[in-house]
Amino acid sequence: MFDVIILAFALSMDAFAVSIGLGAKKYQAMAHIAFRAGLFFGCFQALMPLIGYLGGKGLLGWVDSYTSWIAFGLLVLIGGKMVYEGLSEGIEEVIQNISNKVLLLLAIATSIDAMAAGFSLILLPFSPLLACVIIGVVTFAMSFVGVYIGKYGGTWLEGKAEVLGGIVLVLIGFRILFL
Q1: Are 165 and 82 in contact (CB under 8 A)?
Q2: SS3 for 179?
Q3: CA of 56: how far to CAs of 61, 65, 68, in Å?
Q4: Which of 3, 11, 36, 6 is nearest to 111 (CA)?
Q5: Amino acid 61: pLDDT
Q6: What integer is the mean pLDDT of 89-115?
Q7: Is residue 147 a contact partner of residue 37, using CB atoms and an 8 Å limit?
Q8: Quick one: how many helices (H) and strands (E) in the chain?
Q9: Phi-psi region of 98 (alpha: psi -120 to 50; beta: other; left: phi over 0)
Q10: pLDDT at residue 91 above 60?
Q11: Which of 53, 137, 141, 153 is least crowded, fewest Cβ atoms below 10 Å from its Cβ?
Q12: HSE-up of 69 (CA within 13 Å, CB side)?
């Protein structure tokens, strides 16, 4: 269970960083924006690993002896990408209006990595459905809180959150491979 919670926090860092950016815009209805951001990001972060898990489960017969290496490779790639994006400045666009369409696009963009990470759920001795629910709930909470952190603390934490999440995913990849 500890692995799933750590994975959930690591996967939620993209959504957390974007939520901080949304909160930094200082819109009037912060509670409404925080709830919507949490709902969109949480639902997609829960759904995408499930899709990755089901896809990986279908491939399991063909790649059974390589699953640890595949999970390791995917987590290191995803983690490395998150570290790179966290260290790069000026990537994110300025969002003027936080519509449902914008939140949907942001939710999809931040959860694509979670689909690849869902493949690693095959290797965990834990219910994949429950793991996806935990990932969704953690992402909801992190996104909700992220909006308020952005409102009061500015955006200095955005990149740091992504870097931390990326490092954790890389470490999980090494743990899967060697332990």
Answers
A1: yes
A2: coil
A3: 9, 13, 12
A4: 11
A5: 63
A6: 73
A7: yes
A8: 6, 0
A9: beta
A10: no
A11: 153
A12: 4
Q: What is the DSSP letter of 89?
A: -
Residue 145 identity:
V
What letter would DSSP give residue 88?
A: S
| DSSP states of 91-130 | -SPP-S---HHHHHHHHHHHHHHHHHHGGGGGGSSS-HHH
**Which residue in 52, 41, 40 sits closest to 128, CA to CA?**
52
Q: Which residues of 130-147 are buried (b: 16+ CB within 10 A; e: fewer)?
A: ebbbbbbbbbbbbbbbbb
**pLDDT at 119 (0 to 100):** 79
Look-up: residue for tokens 């009061």?
152
